[in-house]
Amino acid sequence: MPSTTTSLAALPQACKLCATEYAASPDAICAECLGPLEPMYPANRVLPDREDIERRVPSLWRYKEWLPFEGTPVHSLETGFTPLIETPRLASKLGVARLWVKNDAVAQPSLSFKDRVVTTAINAAHALGLGVVGCASTGNLANAVAAHAARAGLPAWIFIPEDLEPAKIINTAVFGANLVRVRGHYDDMNRLCAQLADRFGWGIVNVNLRGYYGEGSKTMGFEIAEQLGWRLPTAVVAPMAGGSLLTKLRKAFGEFQDAKLVNGAAPRLYGAQASGCAPIVRLVERGGGALVPEIPNTIARSIAIGNPADGRFAAMAMVESGGWGAHVSDAEIVAGIRLLAETTGVFTETAGGVTVAAALNLARDGRLTQDDEVVLCITGNGLKTTDVVKDVLPDSPIVDARVREVAALVASRG
Ligand SMILES: Cc1ncc(COP(=O)(O)O)c(C=O)c1O
Ligand SMILES: [Zn+2]
To answer: Class for domain 9-69+114-213, per CATH?
Structure first.
């Protein structure tokens, strides 16, 4: 039931598979067929035009008609509208016409695109009268839930794999959340969180609030379209964990086409994974509808989900848009992080390295061509995974504060 103390109400939901309808509630799975629930938008709602949107504050709420609420949001009002950076130097490495980086490495407040999904989920928690939020996380979501909950003054319970990167643990614990390290993989935590949501009535953002959470990812697609000058790129490359972001990018571009805010063809969508956990890419390569779960083994911890909830939908988004998938080795991930940093001045975490390396492979295989205008979704910040690059970067020489010593160095570097 929507809380009576707020002017914010969550929209009702419908099953994506069998269309059974449900009143707004903290449930993400259809009782009839176990399909995922998605918010239902009123057919007669009034949509803004380009000028209306441009007049609004630069946050993801400028697209509020496509977010799953009626009324005024109360939490996380500043999230979104990250930079879209054109990178000609990286474009020439790939051999494509033009290339942009959508830079969610600087998303607010927690430096990953998970700020978007937590923004919608925490407002759903408020609208549904839930006083505690939580998540099962591979790292970035933990950072985001902890930060957004701190700002909102809500208690948070956060579950991560026991051996997660130290920076991701610190970036969660510092916000005062209840942080629990679980023996096992993401999929074990996900099951645990479903049980905990039932037991304690918590709003687990990516479990029982997943229908509301996922809609936040659409805003990355809306921003790409607006920041390109109200048009669509020909191709988008994005990393995949649960497969939600890729699925929602497709939905976002389709919604802007339907609203006549953009013209022309939808972009081809390319999903990127690490070879050590690539169940969605392998589904695309193999064909058919049955995803085969994997046990993750990769440095790309943030996208290491072996049994992705939206894997099938992400595979469909890639194939039906005319795109494809690519998976890359851990060495390619590190090289991808360095290439992006050296050509673009953006330091990304491992998921971004996966995206850049996948784009290189797709270009090499002729899937991205010299006619393409490509956007790479860079979804997280490199300061969270410094361990993977620290041993491959050159040592910095130490000198006395003498011009002579620096002159010798300059000469040695030609
Ligand atoms: C940095 C980063 N990029 C991409 C993803 C993929 O998100 P999704 O689960 O929506 O596929 C994640 C998910 O954890 C992430 O942390
Ligand atoms: Zn159903």
So the answer is: alpha beta
Task: Give the residue among 327, 276, 280 at the shortest CA–CA distance from 298.
Answer: 276
Rounded distance between C-alpha atoms, residue 154 and residue 146, angstroms: 9
pLDDT digits (tens, 9 = 90+) for 346-363: 999 999 999 999 999 999
* Sequence-distant (≥ 6) Cβ neighbours of residue 58 within 8 angstroms: 80, 81
pTM for the whole structure: 0.96
Q: Which atom, in ligand 1's list, is nearest to the CA of 243?
A: 11
In DSSP terms, 34 is beta-bridged to none
Decide if domain 84-110+217-390 falls under CATH 3.40.50.1100.
Answer: yes
Ligand 1 atom at shortest distance from the alpha carbon of 241: 11
- Neighbouring C-beta atoms of residue 4, cutoff 10 Å: 6
Phi and psi, residue 99, nearest 5°: -145, 135
Ligand with the closest atom to the CA of 30 = 2
Strands 156-161 and 133-136: parallel
